Amino acid sequence: MTDVFDQFNLRDRVAVVTGGSRGLGREMALGFAQAGASVVVASRKIDACERLAQEIYEATGRRALPVACHTGKWEDADLLFETVYGEFGAAHVLVNNAGSSPVYDTPSSVSEELFDRTIAVNLRGAFRMTSLFGERMAADGGGSIINISSIASVKPSVHEIPYAAAKAGLNTITTAFAHAFGPAVRVNAIVPGAFLTDVAAAWDMDAFARVAKRYDLKRGGDPAEIVGTALYLASDASSYVTGSLLHIDGGAR
Predict the structure, then answer these.
(1) pLDDT tens-digit map of 194-211
(2) Is 240 a catalytic residue?
(3) CB within 10 Å: which end of the chain, N or C, has fewer?
(4) How many domains does the chain have?
(5) Which of these is catalytic: 163, 215, 232, 240?
């Protein structure tokens, strides 16, 4: 009989998390380590990566490798790939979590630079990372890639048009890469709603509370509530799941 709980075990696996030093990425990196994985924490700020890597080691005893990586830069994605395989010789889980949603006044005020940067961080980087890691995972016999999309990809607002477009593209490449790398590699996306990460410190919480009343769960998500879904998709528990977009949004309407 299959041990249900052992299906979620990530012992002897290597998990790479971009945007891994804060917010949802931080929670997923910690969760993977608690499940037994060695973790690569990648983000633009190496000092933040180093702090979390030390925290992970102290809390779990698992190795955590901090790597500076700007996923909007093609060469940084290549370097991260080379570093992971140089250090571990394998990668079993990739989470494309790095993202950015710049603020702007009106759609016409969006500059070419802001638009291009938003597409680069949220879509182009994930494309390059998935291309590199997915091909190597397939050659090595398997793996799981998880793209972190957004509810904005299907319910966009006027305040996040470039970001929403990039995340909609991320949904599309999730399906395409599932076709490209199956059957060995599974590629799925989590579509989060409003999570109360450090970014929420800039929100008008009174206004958000009014919006949240329309959610089935009547609240925003705690960052730790992403971990169960991520662990499910990363592990053997989801062995027959690929090309899926899994909404974690508290019943947003």
Answers:
(1) 888 877 777 778 787 788
(2) no
(3) N
(4) 1
(5) 163
